[in-house]
Specification:
The radius of gyration is 13 Å and the shape is globular. It has three helices and five strands. Strand 2, helix 1 and strand 3 form a beta-alpha-beta unit. The mean pLDDT is 92. It has a five-stranded mixed β-sheet. It starts with a strand and ends in a 7-residue tail after the last strand. It is α/β, with parallel strands linked by helices. 28% of the residues are buried.
Length: 111
């Protein structure tokens, strides 16, 4: 099956980058996203994950994001989620995972 995810890293200055995640973050694509986020967190101290083009996220995708949050904490790096779609905000709320992340530019939807 064709994987439907794109992860693009854009340096934003010394020690920082923006990671744009586009497509479906699911059981099939989560390992690639996890590896990409772990790689940038090893190289950058300030990472913003742009989720504006994320179409879907299941529990495996949430696991990849939570794994990145743990890696950021271990590396004393900043991991910020940006443009969190409503469906992911709901998943974060229902899984009691909101506190694992720092957010930028938006109020989390879905209550």
């Amino acid at each position: 099956m064709l994987e439907m995810i794109d992860v693009a890293v854009h340096p934003t200055g010394p020690g920082g980058c923006r990671v744009a995640v586009a497509g479906d973050l699911d059981v099939e694509t989560a390992p690639d996203v996890r590896a990409a986020l772990h790689g940038v967190l090893a190289a950058y101290g300030h990472v913003t994950v742009d989720l504006s083009a994320l179409r879907f996220c299941d529990c495996a995708g949430l696991g990849a994001l939570l794994s990145a949050a743990r890696t950021a904490e271990a590396h004393d790096a900043d991991l910020i989620l940006s443009a969190v779609p409503d469906f992911l905000a709901r998943l974060l709320r229902l899984s009691h995972s909101r506190e694992a992340f720092t957010y930028r530019e938006e109020v989390l939807g879905d209550g």
